[in-house]
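Worked example 3 (structure in, sequence out).
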């Protein structure tokens, strides 16, 4: 240890206050990112956590950095202890002012160049304390300060590329598309409608029997499908089909269900069918009537989306007045009542 009295050089109080405020802001952003990571891990969230951790810790290092100088040596320090060994001025070959993207810092070149965490200042901003500290280092080392642009182009390119990647990856598997997102209400599973609507099917089709195959297969990115069909003869059928969607890389489950709903309605359309929008039924609903391709055959479909579930109710019959839109709509409402949202 150098026995001579030491002068401790630091960055200006104003600079340290700005760094403290920046660190607090980065910590707040880090807390949000950590919470997002607990909801759903995604590449963008992982990158955000890493970036914000660096932006929160680095200003703290700048705030706590010190350099002690004596007539014979200097030493990098923390507020309550050394951060490195004493280095004699005789081994110093130069004092560099390293210009970064936002900051200007001091580097003392010896046989092992050492970048000091203090003094430091913001670039293009006057700082009398920084200038005085640099002058003291120059006087003690007997070296004239030399400005150096330390890889400024590479640093700028790195951060531009990093932020561009962050922006491109942000929509992929975004936490706000996850079912656990606090403001998102979605169904986790489909209800058992086949057993619940057996009595309704027997009322509509007294001679009908449940078949193991379902007539209704929903198009699009459907994760889970369930359905059942009751038949009476070659024409009369009563079918219920449900489809559950999940999020994908770019969309939440409700948006995926909307695409499936649009495709289902488009697939049920026909040149002789009438499509009517139904209000107050799920999130969106369409009623399709007509479509009898055989004598005395009538058909009525109601297609509904509730959150991430698509419900299709279809009745095709030759019995006059049985395939009424209002009856099919009531069955659709009863089906929606069985869907529980989380």
């Amino acid at each position: 240890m150098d026995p001579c009295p030491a002068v401790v050089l630091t960055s200006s109080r104003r600079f340290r206050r700005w760094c403290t405020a920046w660190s607090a802001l980065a910590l707040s952003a880090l807390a949000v990112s950590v919470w997002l990571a607990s909801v759903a891990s995604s590449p963008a969230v992982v990158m955000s956590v890493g970036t914000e951790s660096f932006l929160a810790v680095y200003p703290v290092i700048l705030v706590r950095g010190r350099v002690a100088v004596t007539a014979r040596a200097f030493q990098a320090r923390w507020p309550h202890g050394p951060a490195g060994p004493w280095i004699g001025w005789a081994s110093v070959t130069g004092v560099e002012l390293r210009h970064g993207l936002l900051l200007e810092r001091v580097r003392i070149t010896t046989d092992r160049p050492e970048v000091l965490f203090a003094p430091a200042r913001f670039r293009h901003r006057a700082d009398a304390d920084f200038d005085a500290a640099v002058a003291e280092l120059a006087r003690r080392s007997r070296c004239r300060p030399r400005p150096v642009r330390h890889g400024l182009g590479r640093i700028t390119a790195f951060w531009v590329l990093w932020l561009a990647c962050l922006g491109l990856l942000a929509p992929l598997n975004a936490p706000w598309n996850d079912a656990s997102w606090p403001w998102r209400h979605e169904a986790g599973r489909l209800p058992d409608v086949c057993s619940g609507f057996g009595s309704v099917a027997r009322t509509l089709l007294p001679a009908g029997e449940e078949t193991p195959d379902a007539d209704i297969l929903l198009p699009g990115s459907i994760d889970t499908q369930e359905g059942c069909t009751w038949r009476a003869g070659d024409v009369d059928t009563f079918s219920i089909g449900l489809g559950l969607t999940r999020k994908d890389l770019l969309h939440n489950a409700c948006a995926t269900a909307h695409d499936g709903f649009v495709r289902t309605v488009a697939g049920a359309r026909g040149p002789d069918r009438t499509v009517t929008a139904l209000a107050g039924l799920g999130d969106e609903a369409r009623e399709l009537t007509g479509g009898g391709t055989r004598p005395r055959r009538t058909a009525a479909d109601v297609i509904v989306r509730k959150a991430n579930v698509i419900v299709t109710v279809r009745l095709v019959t030759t019995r006059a007045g049985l395939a009424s839109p209002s009856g099919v709509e009531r069955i659709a409402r009863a089906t929606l009542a069985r869907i529980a949202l989380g």
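Notes: The CA atoms of residues 31 and 49 lie 9 Å apart. The chain is about 35% helix and 30% strand.
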